Amino acid sequence: MTKYKEEYVHSDHLLYVQLGENVRKLRKRCHLTQDELAARIGADQKRVSKIERGEARPNLTLCLRLANAFHVSVDTLLEGVVEYEMVQTLLNATSEQLLAQELLQVVKRYIREAEK
Question: If pLDDT is split at 50, 70 and 90, which confidence band does 109 have?
Fold first, then answer.
């Protein structure tokens, strides 16, 4: 069964603190400044600083950008935060949602063109 690590069930703040620590470690491992990382993920330096301090709550899209900036997988970025299976569930759900949205847009375009 997929689950969050037990200590994060009661305090989501700890989850973001751990994520921030991971981001800081990966940033330093890649020899990037906060400004350089911000440029890579389409954010500003203050946002990166807040993420590293656990004060920001990056969404899945930003987590994907962070993982890409560090050339690591999302499960590496979230190491120590959630169980591996939870990451896979989140990624699969997001992929399915994106596919459904794209299909809906195609159908809407088709209907608009058919009505002309």
Answer: confident
pTM for the model: 0.64
How open is the CA angle 102-105-107, to the nearest 5 degrees?
110
Give the pLDDT score at 12. Answer: 67
| CA distance linking residue 74 with residue 26, whole number of Å | 12
Secondary structure of residue 41 in the 3-state scheme: helix
Q: Helix or strand or coil: residue 82?
A: strand
80: region left, alpha or beta (phi > 0 left; psi from -120 to 50 alpha)? left
Query: Do 4 and 18 form a contact (C-beta atoms < 8 A)?
Result: no
